[in-house]
Amino acid sequence: MLRDIPQVTKNLLILNILMFALTFFFQTQNIDLNSMLGAHYVNSPLFKPYQIISYFFMHGDVFHILFNMFALVMFGGFLEKLWGPKRFFILYISAAIGAFALYNAIGVFEIIQLRKEIAAMGTPSLETIDNLMLSGQVYVNPPAALQKYYEMCFTPMVGASGAIFGIMAAFAILFPNTELMLLFPPIPIKAKFLIGGYFVYELYRSFYQVAGDNVAHLAHVGGAIVGAILVLIWRRNRTNFY
Length: 242
Description:
Layout: H1 7-27, H2 33-37, H3 51-54, H4 62-83, H5 85-121, H6 126-134, H7 144-154, H8 161-174, E1 179-181, E2 188-190, H9 191-207, H10 217-235
Antiparallel strand pairs: 1-2
Helix pairs in contact: 1-4, 4-5, 4-8, 5-7, 5-8, 5-10, 8-9, 8-10, 9-10
């Protein structure tokens, strides 16, 4: 099967699976790779510049990586064969970075507001809080603003979903009438409706979140937007529909 997958798609698939396996290995050594290599907000004490790239090779659970890698092979492999490795790689990386940028757009502002609230409390100081955070420690039963600050700073964004949404958006624009077969229920649906509907759902969930939802919906939207912009630029005046 791997022989039929184009080179860049194959390398991305292997690298993602390898990093997922390493995550479980390091967990046995009490090392949290997702926290180290996942993307923290840029104004979080835990942010490191390399996370902008490393985050989209990390995944939270089996379902997460299965969906992303299935979509990578299904849509990404097709686009790489159509475009060639260079253009496909540019799309993948650009969509992933675009996902990171939009994910930070609102989160960074929220952290700034929280830091102002915490600073107004006076004790403990922000410097003390950040130093404790860097050492992996937190206050017991913190005030609401501090608890929210901990949650936003400690929870990294992981996964290739932003890049995958960029790929799917590109596919839907280039091949809007291609019928895709759903698994549940097993019915055919055109790409423009399936992927377009999925995008609308992610956009809705970006602004109307429910308790316990840890999915970075805004990152998915960012990846899709970048993917759509790139393919529209590349396609220019082409009007082929498949």
